[in-house]
Model the fold of this input.
Amino acid sequence: MILANDTLIVVTDGDKLRLFRNKGHEPRIDLV
Done:
């Protein structure tokens, strides 16, 4: 998934709430 830098992504699976933020120059997602 390629996103703009510093994009915040929220993922829920009905049980947990997970936040991801895309940082740096590479188009990847790091777990916050």
Remarks:
- Residues 5 and 24 are 7 Å apart (CA to CA).
